[in-house]
Amino acid sequence: MERPSERYQLLGRLGATPGGTLHKAFDRHLGREVALRLIERRHGLANLRSEFVAIARIRAPYLVEILDYGLTGAGWEF
To answer: 20 to 30 A Cα–Cα from 11, which one of 27, 29, 36, 52?
Structure first.
């Protein structure tokens, strides 16, 4: 899995979220702008993975779609 610095180009900060920050970013693989949440506290990627997989299965018009998750080179979760 790539670090966000390789796959994503940060375009600007959108705001704060519980435990992290939300950024506007460009996904070089998909060729489109996306929202990228960087999580400040390390919860353990294994714990977040199960949460992300469960959320990714939900389809609703008021939820954003999860496209990717992982760790940055500095150890931040996204």
So the answer is: 52
pLDDT tens for residues 40-49?
665 556 667 7
Q: What is the value of pTM for the model shown? A: 0.68
Whole-angstrom Cα distance, residue 2 to residue 9? 12
Tokens of 60: 């609703």
How far, in Å, CA of 49 to CA of 26, rounded?
A: 22
Q: Which residues, in sequence order, are bridge partners of residue 21?
A: 16, 38
Answer yes or no: are the C-beta atoms of 77 and 48 closer than 8 Å: yes
Burial 57-68 (b: 16+ CB within 10 A, else e): eeeeeeeeeeeb
Taking only the tens place, the pLDDT of each residue in 3-15 is 566 888 989 999 9
